[in-house]
Amino acid sequence: MEYSPKKIQEVFNQNDFHLKKKFGQNFIIDENIINNIVDKSEINKDTLVIEIGPGAGSLTYKLAKQAKQVLCYEIDTTLKEILDHNLKDCPNVNIVFQDFLQANVHQELQKYSYNSLFVVANLPYYITTPIITKIIEEEIPVDKIVVMVQKEVGNRLKATPGTKDYNSLTVYLNCYFSIRKLMDVSRNVFIPKPNVDSIIVEFTRKKEPISVKNTQLFFQLIRDSFSQKRKNLRNNLKNYPLEPIEQVLQKYGLDLNVRAESLSLEIFLEIANSLEDSL
Ligand code: SAM
Predict the structure, then answer these.
(1) Under DSSP, is residue 72 helix (H, G, I), strand (E, B) or coil?
(2) Residue 76 CA: which ligand 1 atom is closest?
(3) Residue 93: which CATH number?
(4) pTM, 2 dp
(5) Domain housing 248
């Protein structure tokens, strides 16, 4: 495959393909970035990679060379000819032309055998959060996620307590994954050039997942605590028994006037467990 912008444009013209903004189509045109994503992912020949949105197949091609198999989900069926052409010597790539958000991934995964499962993708920015949420909520058994996302969204995903970017999804993600930024990516490496820069973020599954007495209650507590970001716990949790919450907060020198964004995962866990005990 050739990665020059000129070559990619030529392939688009030959196939009468037009980039679609509604599908978040910003294609990578810099081979170094692609190599970086693949190298940093540490894929091996026992890894099954799920790629969401292969586009013209630039990243897919390199993933296929490193991985056992690559399972792609692509919503835009007009990319089929380009993908068939660009990936013709990659027999270990399977492309499902479907909206990833609607896909039954568990069913598809039954067709594969693998030792580790990674998600590696340059995500369509308009649905970054729903994609990550789907992976978590549907308990897709991924060991690692390496994704390129809009810088602002990436900062929210890897935010720490006490910062303005910290939110319910961050807490949710931290239950299962260690999260870190791998690198910054300039907007100049895409066609068309987006209005914002990107970052590559890595999520590695924690060996010891959270231990909570009632998972449902725990996630509901997180959602409710962040429901109105500017309000404190007393307001956001007014329908909860406040006494057990207060007792936990006191241990940390806090009270109900605190906002959710200041609380660590451990404090949320302790509150959820004490609520469960008080039921
Ligand atoms: N991987 C390619 C690259 O890096 O050059 C393309 C990345 S582009 C940012 C996002 C890709 O996701 C596009 O190919 C787009 O058509 C696809 N896409 C958008 N929404 C999707 C969805 N709901 N399910 C699957 N693919 C989707």
Answers:
(1) strand
(2) 16
(3) 3.40.50.150
(4) 0.92
(5) 215-278
